[in-house]
């Protein structure tokens, strides 16, 4: 990979061209070039160039994904940012911890830093698409940071951590989130069919299970094994229920 | 001092209300409340409130100074930010070093973080008004950061360093920059009269001398002693030249 491509910046449901431009500029400032818009809240991003100031190379290469799982599909690790300190069943990392993990995980493949929309940030469900969650500690008076300013803080720390070009080590192919999401979808389907999950509220238990697999830092091969296992289970369950 | 008042943020020759608002917001995010505009490039800052988002308390208390020396007059230490890596006779600190020094010096009195204008940043002459200089390391492709984003990076680091409320130690009253500037002005006058400085270009040598005094971290009493000494010298030189 070229320098600056280890880290993908994902903007989820971004609304403001100003913020997009400012994020592109600060990515250029710190040597990062991979930007993905996930389910953008608007497509009229004219005006972003004005604020991008030499970040236009970033904007030109920017990709758009229909949702968060699609945006993260080829990453092995993703950390989502939130200003909420009450998080269901998860412990938020500090920015420094998150950046250290991004650097470690970048040895296994692409990693992503995910920012929520300007108005509501990311829901628990959306954060569950990320391997980890981070909170930038702020004052109680005004806990909510501007999107482009959080990006500045975190990309500065990534730059300091040497994430632009991680030290080369023996590569170990980490499970891509695309595969892990396919696995989660399959698990859901199979476990619903098997009446293990409550059809009214399957997410809670499912997310807990998913998180354990994320924490296990599966290799791609292991994730594919799990996926194949659930395909088989699914067929077996379907056969059982049609008897 | 109340928490958040140890650090003064000085915006020198700021032009954009958007930047002002964004800086006020990020100050509120990280618990800082003292903002001074030095020689602002415009006075029509309507619109700043829109971006300040709960940073209005910061904007309401904001002071305006006619120039940098006036803005820094009651501080014992100031660090100026620049994106220039070629600096006459000075070695730039990294952000982490600068923030460590801000924390140390805040034991002696108020400290300031100074940002230059959007268009030209700060000149060598303006940076000479600051005790130290810092550079945020950036990529060669786009070295120049947006003002509000540099503020986000540095105020985050200040917040992490505990600068909002420094650990109480035996107070040692540091020399205020107002006194140090009065000293520098007096030195200039006396040394010009004494024909020690080149009247065509007195700054270079004078700045070198000033910097040694800044590095010495004078107490207020020591600075006043120096100032009194130069007043006496000035009178003596004037008597000599009128003979």
UniProtKB/TrEMBL annotation, chains A, B:
<dbReference type="InterPro" id="IPR001537">
    <property type="entry name" value="SpoU_MeTrfase"/>
</dbReference>
<dbReference type="InterPro" id="IPR004384">
    <property type="entry name" value="RNA_MeTrfase_TrmJ/LasT"/>
</dbReference>
<keyword id="KW-0489">Methyltransferase</keyword>
<dbReference type="InterPro" id="IPR029026">
    <property type="entry name" value="tRNA_m1G_MTases_N"/>
</dbReference>
<dbReference type="InterPro" id="IPR029028">
    <property type="entry name" value="Alpha/beta_knot_MTases"/>
</dbReference>
<keyword id="KW-0808">Transferase</keyword>
<dbReference type="Pfam" id="PF00588">
    <property type="entry name" value="SpoU_methylase"/>
</dbReference>
<keyword id="KW-0949">S-adenosyl-L-methionine</keyword>
<protein>
    <submittedName>
        <fullName>RNA methyltransferase</fullName>
    </submittedName>
</protein>
<dbReference type="GO" id="GO:0032259">
    <property type="term" value="P:methylation"/>
</dbReference>
<dbReference type="GO" id="GO:0008168">
    <property type="term" value="F:methyltransferase activity"/>
</dbReference>
<comment type="similarity">
    <text>Belongs to the class IV-like SAM-binding methyltransferase superfamily. RNA methyltransferase TrmH family.</text>
</comment>
<feature type="domain" description="tRNA/rRNA methyltransferase SpoU type">
    <location>
        <begin position="7"/>
        <end position="156"/>
    </location>
</feature>
